[in-house]
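Writing this down once: the sequence line spells out the residues, with the fold written below as integer tokens. This is how one looks:
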Amino acid sequence: MTTTAHDRARIVECPNCGSKNRVLAAAEGAPRCGACSNPLVWIVDASDADFGTVADGATVPVLVDVWAPWCGPCRMVSPALEQLATELAGNLKLVKVNADVAPEVSSRFGVQAIPTLILMHHGRVIDTQVGAAPARALRSWLASRLPADKGKTSRADHLSGEGGRP
């Protein structure tokens, strides 16, 4: 039996209540804690076979990290990306693509250097950033590019600290 993106899941601990939650790689909306309903961090790995389902089909903005295990700058920027995904839980999905095992994804986006970050919304590219950057620069880049929801605190406000986040 083959595993699809709809079947793959990660166990994520809720930062609010500590409950363990099964978070699917591909799902409608954004994951929420089953116990307290707070948003959960959404970080998934994608391959050529399931990128369309995992990233293109997402209803929240997606930050694609094209990386490789042998790439020092990729390993340096990874913790910052995971921190940003945590800060934007419920508002951003981080999709990690290993360029060595997903050449079609790299080709689709014209990736010539890694790390390459691709910000997408509803399957469309919003912006691309090539190379490692410090967390503060990545936070600023995301804040300036993420769309705001009407009637809600904008994602940029969450990142800049104006939406109730320090």
User: Anything to note?
Assistant: The domain at 42-160 is CATH 3.40.30.10 (Glutaredoxin). The two ends are 46 Å apart (CA to CA). The mean pLDDT is 87. The chain has one domain: 42-160.
